[in-house]
Amino acid sequence: MMKSVLIFCVLLLISVVNAWSQTGIINGFISDRELGTPVAGVMVRVDGTQIGAVSGTDGRFRLKGLSAGTLILRFSSIGYEKSSTMVVFRTTEPKDIVVTLLQSPLETDQVVVSANRRVQAAQDVPISVSTLTSADLDSRAITKLDDALKYVSGVTVQGDQVNIRGASGFALGIGSRTAVLLDGMPLLSGDNGDIKFDVLPVADVDRIEIIKGAGSALYGTGALGGVVSMFTKPPAKKLELSARSYMGVYEFPKYDSWKYRNTVPTQSGADLRVAQSVGDFSFSASGGVRYDEGSREFDKHLRGFGYGKAVWQPTYQNSFTVATLVAVENSQNFIYWRNLTNATLPPLEQNLDERLYTTRFALSGEWLYLFSDKTSLTVRPATYRTTFENRVNGVALESNKSTAYSHNVDVQVTSVIVPTITLTSGITGKLNHVRSDLYGFQLQSIISAFAQAEVTELKYWVFTAGLRVDREETYTLKPQLELSPKFGASYKFSDFLNFRASLGRGFRAATVAERYANIRYGPFNVIPNPNILPESSWSAEIGAHITVTNWLLPIDVDVAVFDNELRNLIEPEFAVDQASVPIVFKNVTQARIIGAELTIRTLVAKNIRFETGLTLMAPKDIGLDRELKYRNAVLWYNRASWQVFDGVDVQADYRYVSKITTTDAQLQLFIPDADQRVPAHIVDARLIFDFASFLNVPMRFSIIGRNVMNYAYTEYVANLGPSRNFMLQLEYRK
Amino acid sequence: MIVWCLVLGTVWGCEGLNPANVPPITEFRGTVTYVGGEASWPADSVYDLRVVMFDSIPTSTTAVLGAILSGSAAFSNTLPSPAISTQYAIQINPAPRTFRYVVVALRNGPSPLTDWLMLSVYAPTGNVNQPGTVSILTGETATINFTVDFDQLPPQPFK
Fold this sequence. Notes:
The complex is a heterodimer of chains A (734) and B (159).
Chain A: H1 2-17, E1 24-32, E2 43-46, E3 52-54, E4 60-66, E5 69-76, E6 83-89, E7 95-101, E8 111-112, E9 120-121, E10 129-133, H2 134-139, H3 145-149, E11 155-158, E12 161-164, E13 178-182, E14 185-186, E15 205-212, H4 216-219, E16 226-232, E17 240-250, E18 266-278, E19 281-292, E20 301-312, E21 318-331, E22 354-370, E23 375-392, E24 395-418, E25 421-436, E26 440-455, E27 461-474, E28 480-492, E29 497-508, H5 512-516, E30 519-521, E31 524-527, E32 535-548, E33 555-574, E34 583-605, E35 608-621, E36 626-627, E37 634-645, E38 648-657, H6 667-670, E39 680-690, H7 691-694, E40 699-706, E41 714-716, E42 719-720, E43 725-733
Parallel strand pairs in A: 1-7, 13-16, 31-34
Antiparallel strand pairs in A: 1-4, 2-3, 2-5, 5-6, 8-9, 10-15, 11-12, 13-14, 15-16, 17-18, 17-43, 18-19, 19-20, 20-21, 21-22, 22-23, 23-24, 24-25, 25-26, 26-27, 27-28, 28-29, 29-32, 30-31, 32-33, 33-34, 34-35, 35-36, 35-37, 37-38, 38-39, 39-40, 40-43, 41-42
Chain B: H1 2-13, E1 27-34, E2 48-54, H2 61-70, E3 73-75, E4 85-91, E5 97-99, E6 101-107, E7 116-121, E8 134-136, E9 141-143, E10 146-148
Parallel strand pairs in B: 1-9, 1-10
Antiparallel strand pairs in B: 1-4, 2-3, 2-6, 5-8, 6-7
């Protein structure tokens, strides 16, 4: 550990050696080449530096802290072709430039932040990354962020658990194998290691990046199967105001025996967001409420959340950010069905007066300091408090409640050592503090150091190598040391073809819940097993990305083959040697998931877009020489959108998820008809009217249909998916 | 468009889950009521609690586990404790079937082999010395309620 700290200190010294020198400013304006209108949201980067900016709604941007010399500025934005310009810059006088961008029929040339913890072009990243922008969320009328993730190839969401390329199975909602971050702040709870997506500020989210494959070399524990990193919107110069309200109904269930009430269940919600910059200050605030009766009895939810962010940038060198997230939820807790005949009812022994009451509170800060145009320091402290308790008629059940804190601090230095080498290094600390009737009083600490170098020495190659050291210790248990290396390379074969290859290790320390749970969960008794070791993975991938805009059809193709080797997987197992057959979390499985993924986006006709993502996997339990349980072999996602005329869009999505063929046989002892499963065929459709296009009113009206074919399927074991439901959504945006 | 037509055609042709595809449910259900409420429960000795329906009367404590593991008994999920009353359900598959000894069984120690105690026995005549036999036909739902009095347990079947 001392060695790691020493290495980090040396790297830090190297970084700081880049002395700050006299600097200057470039002011810019970006417009659409054909329309002449300002283009907002363009990412501007200066080659060989840490300097960057995003254009505001007026198309203007400002780059500060630039050293004199010949600079290459690169511009990228969704819906536009990438562009670059060379600027001869003297620091004695501000420079004004004007840039025009050409519209691109396909949304290409995106930038990615999460893959290497710094802004870079997507084609330079050696690992599969999918990006969802706020435009994607808007166009699909997303009200819950996990709904958005369901439209990403290779990703499924079961409850709130994100499963990337089969890394996760069925784990009673405990122990996410995907790291989840909001503006760099970890969002997994300190006890269960879980995430609640529907309390996150949808209106504030600017971009979601999904890294597919092990990401522990930069993100540490939890990034076993991948990383979901969300970024909030930068406030604009002028006041931004948006409001959204929606309401809808679920249809009666498909079969009479599933009908459990005489009126249709409803869902409704509202969001409000306001943001503005004033001088050196900017802020954004948003909040929302959600009410959802669900399409099953005892599945009602009422949620409220608020989010606020304030940024102060007194000089171009310093930027301070404070953000907070508050969420409360009062819900019924449908765990599994009574049986297939009564699939919309909970088990008979379920106390229908019981409620699950949860709260979440996060407070985070960020200090960004530019030592020079080539070296930056980022310090991110954060704390995340989560509570849950079961209540009966408003009275808390003492035996089923938990309070957990997850304190995090992250210090990162990014430095362009020489124009061809970028070094990213840092140290992180995490302290999980749990006080619970279920888990006892527990402390879990993880301290880490990481470093990564990217080399662009050869004209067409980008090489990446990194290493992270984590030391995990849980109260009284023997500390665990984890080394997570990563290697990657990307090769620009031509302007339209890139290749990539990567190899990286991931790990996940057992959560407090997995080690210490002494809980009755539905019919299951879960008993503790403190001696669980961290689980780990090696992910290897080879991929290629092709973007062609001048063929018969403009087309964007990404293809990847991957191999995920999973070791010591922590899985819930039935202890069949005990009379009550309790569940205990154990390191039980050695597994391999070999697969291939193909994603195609194209314009099949003017104003008709088509997108498809096919993921084929062969998940194998090596120890038992059989298929790995609770995994899907095929995921197939399709999307078509047709702009009927300016301001009117028709969209349809189709998701196919193959049937899970291998499960725990003992489940059927506890859950009637637990073996009843089918492949999932889910069709969603939307009709969107954008009044800004034809009435010059900044409003949008959407008619949204989900599961429009009313297909009956299980989302996970003994949990019927939602029946056909429709929503009307009205949105105002200024 | 062709792809979407194929998709819609495929989904249209897929039935999905259908409750008609599972055999009709044969089920015992009922309520277990505890005399004296939660205060009457023995502290620290409730390891497992279930309604258990035996094909034949177990004559030793080890026969309880043997019947469960061999399939010659049907049993409910673990019942919550302590409680004033609780509902249970046991699905019977295959059916029809006859049970000659139906009880609320408590495991009051760490050993699933030896630590069994019968808390209440199904006795339609009211005489707990004469346990009742119950039969159920396919698709039937039968109700059996139990009353547990920790101060007045039924005779234990073990020799």
